[in-house]
Amino acid sequence: MEEYNEMELMICISSRLLEDGSVISVGTGGPCAAAMVAQKLYSPNLLITFEAGAVAPLLPSMPVSVGDSRTMFKAIQTTSMSEIMESLQRGMVDYCFLGGAQIDMYGNLNSTLIGSDYRHPKVRLPGSGGANDFGSLAWRTIVMTPQSSRRFVQKIDFITTPGYLTGPGAREKSGLPPGTGPYKVVTNLAVLGYDEETKRMMIESIHRGITLDDIKVNTGFELLIKGKIPSTEPPTKEELRVLRDEVDPLKLIIGKEAV
User: Fold this and answer.
1) C-alpha 43: how far from chain center
2) What residues are labeled active site?
3) Dist CA 215 CA 233 (whole Å)
């Protein structure tokens, strides 16, 4: 069996979620690696955009920031952040990848603070950046993150980026476009999705070597379970070769521990 680490696992699984011809806006790190693997193996016409303004680059290797010149390699357009945000408002972005320090059962994300006092938090986090815009307006939001009870919580301390808020219909009542919202959560333990009726997070597959109890221990709320849960297909040799040799040969991302 091919050996791989947790970061490689999450990147390879995420790459399979992006269908050919779709439009994705990514930052750097694991999400960018997933988009690059998808473009090289599964979705050659995947159109990648970066918040800093690059449209449809053919990334030669892992950029270190959204303003890295590699994000514009063979791009069809180099525009501005406002143009990228406008494309979101016009409904032209199918996927975005987001993360956060906390996530709840409806996919709401907190990247602002830990604690109950906004002015005197226990931990001040980076904030939204463009996360709220992407989570509000992209059609599908994917989260790639390690799973722990500290991160997957019953109630997040601050809603930086709306998921399904309080449940069915809540996004629409808040003025967000119908049909948009959380799509998948890819963790080091499982692939999670959302129940169509309740909008709550549910288990879709469990990674090899992981038990249902492992997932429950590392989740601060009840995950829905429907029927028999399949095993996640592990990374293939070809996925790992492309990831290690072409996407991230310097191990800038896959050399890091998934925390």
Assistant:
1) 17
2) 51
3) 17
Note whether 71 and 57 are within 8 A (CB): yes
Q: What is 148-171 written as a DSSP string? A: -TTTB-SS-S--SB-SSTTSTTHH
How far apart are alpha carbons 98 and 144 in whole angstroms? 7
Assessment of whether the complete model's pTM goes beyond 0.90? yes
Determine the pLDDT at residue 83: 93
Cα angle, residue 204 at apex, residues 203 and 207 outer, rounded to 5°: 90
Structural contact between residues 106 and 114, judged by C-beta atoms closer than 8 angstroms: no
DSSP character string of 11-67: HHHHHTT--TT-EEEE-SSHHHHHHHHHHHHT-TT-EEEETTSEES---SS--SSTT
**10 pLDDT above the threshold of 80:** yes
Q: Above 90 in pLDDT, residue 64?
A: no
Can you read off the two tokens belonging to residue 200?
A: 């709550």
**pLDDT number for residue 85:** 92
Instruction: Convert the pLDDT of each residue in 22-62 to its tens digit.
Output: 999 988 889 999 999 999 999 999 999 998 899 999 888 88
243: pLDDT strictly greater than 60: yes
The type of residue at 62 is: M
Residues 191-197: what's their mean pLDDT?
A: 97
187 and 254 Cβ atoms separated by less than 8 Å: no
Burial of 222 by CB count in 10 Å (0-12 exposed, 13-18 middle, 19+ buried)? exposed
Q: Which residues contact 231 (CB under 8 A, 6 or more apart)?
A: 205, 206, 207, 208
Angle at 43 between CA 37 and CA 48, to 5 degrees: 75
CB 191 within 8 A of CB 205: yes
